[in-house]
């Protein structure tokens, strides 16, 4: 939810005045999907572990239970791939929205002929990149 993040921009008309601008975009859906799937995967893994360890004889006797477990695991693997791709796309969109050149281009005061605008810092995205790779 980048639209909730304000940033200060100097107002060139007044020497000490600043204007508050907000970033544009809401890329929370892919991240929420990724985290929700991770939580459900963890809960299913814990339930399967209890089933394997505590009710091993039931798992061995019932022929439908292993097949059901296999089908659920395949579904989780597919959705994990989809969630990782969605989070990767969401991260790419966040990077594009927070790129200093994009922010400077969106500022009206930086559009003048004699105006030189540059970013104070570049956002660090290393940990976000690692979250997609894992």
Shape category: rod-shaped
Order of helices and strands: EEHHHHH
| Main sheet: strands, sense, barrel | 2 strands, antiparallel
- Please tell me how large the radius of gyration is: 24 Å
Helical region count? 5
Count of strand segments: 2
Strand arrangement in the largest pleated sheet:
1-2
What portion of residues is helical?
A: 55-70%
Poorly predicted parts:
none
Distance between the termini: 23 Å
Average residue-wise pLDDT: 80
How would you characterize this protein structure?
The protein is mainly alpha-helical and 134 residues long. The chain has a domain at 28-105. Helix content is 62%, strand content 7%. The protein is built from 5 helices and 2 strands. The chain has helices spanning 28-54, 56-61, 64-98, 100-106, 126-133, and strands at residues 6-10, 18-22. The chain has a two-stranded antiparallel sheet with strand order 1-2. A hairpin with a 7-residue loop joins β1 and β2 (18-22). α3 packs antiparallel against α5. The longest helix is centred in the middle third of the chain and has 35 residues, at 64-98. The radius of gyration is 24 Å and the shape is rod-shaped. It holds the Pfam family MARVEL.
């Amino acid at each position: 939810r980048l639209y909730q993040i304000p940033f200060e921009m100097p107002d060139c008309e007044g020497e000490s005045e600043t204007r508050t601008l907000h970033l544009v975009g809401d890329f929370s859906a892919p991240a929420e999907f990724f985290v929700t799937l991770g939580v459900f995967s963890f809960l299913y893994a814990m339930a399967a572990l209890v089933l394997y360890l505590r009710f091993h004889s039931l798992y061995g006797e019932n022929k439908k239970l292993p097949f059901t477990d296999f089908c659920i695991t395949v579904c989780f693997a597919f959705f994990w791939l989809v969630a990782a791709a969605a989070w990767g796309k969401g991260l790419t969109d966040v990077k594009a929205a927070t790129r200093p050149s994009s922010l400077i281009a969106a500022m009206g005061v930086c559009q003048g002929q004699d105006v030189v605008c540059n970013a104070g810092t570049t956002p660090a995205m290393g940990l976000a990149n690692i979250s997609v790779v894992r």
